[in-house]
Design brief:
The protein is mainly α and about 170 residues long. It is about 65% helix and about 0% strand.
Length: about 170
């Protein structure tokens, strides 16, 4: 569809219901196929036991069934072992990929917390020492230096003094 034309909701719902009905039909067909395939497999690999005969024949049939069960259990155990081994390899490879890519560290957030609050959060009730570092600092008072008024008064003298310096650099 082009960008300018939009499908109205009734059409969209109708198409959606058609798709769902077709999918439901496919699922039903798959279930029927699975039942038929299972019956065919059972008929091929597990024939109906002949239960007519004396007790010795029935004991022989039971022994054969136990042997078949043992073979199936061994195959199942081997398959489970292979799956566990491959799962372990997959997990190891995932860890290697993460290690190679490197773990991205999230940006740290600035936390407004005093040293006392941090120690209290980390140590709990064991915290007894106060860490008020600002109280231990010396108080320093700034001295205001007053320049004489005449030094700031005549700016021409400063300019002439600077001009002499400029000449000194040009001559050398």
């Amino acid at each position: 569809m082009s960008e300018g034309k939009k499908m109205n909701s009734s059409r969209r719902h109708h198409l959606k219901s058609l798709i769902l009905s077709i999918a439901a039909g496919w699922i039903e067909q798959e279930k029927k196929d699975l039942v038929v395939a299972k019956a065919a497999y059972m008929a091929e690999n597990c024939p109906e036991p002949v239960l007519s005969g004396d007790q010795a024949a029935l004991m022989e049939i039971c022994k054969k069934l136990y042997q078949a069960i043992d073979k199936v259990d061994e195959a199942r155990y081997d398959a489970e072992a292979k799956v566990k081994k491959s799962d372990a390899e997959i997990d190891d490879l995932k860890l290697k990929v993460v290690d190679l890519a490197g773990v991205k560290k999230p940006a740290l957030k600035k936390v407004r917390m005093s040293a006392d609050a941090m120690l209290k959060a980390l140590l709990g009730g064991q915290h007894k020492v106060t860490m008020d570092l600002r109280s231990n600092l010396k108080q320093v008072k700034k001295e205001v230096k007053e320049e004489p008024a005449e030094a700031a008064g005549d700016w021409r003298k400063n300019v002439e003094g600077k001009a002499d310096r400029k000449k000194m650099f040009e001559t050398s």
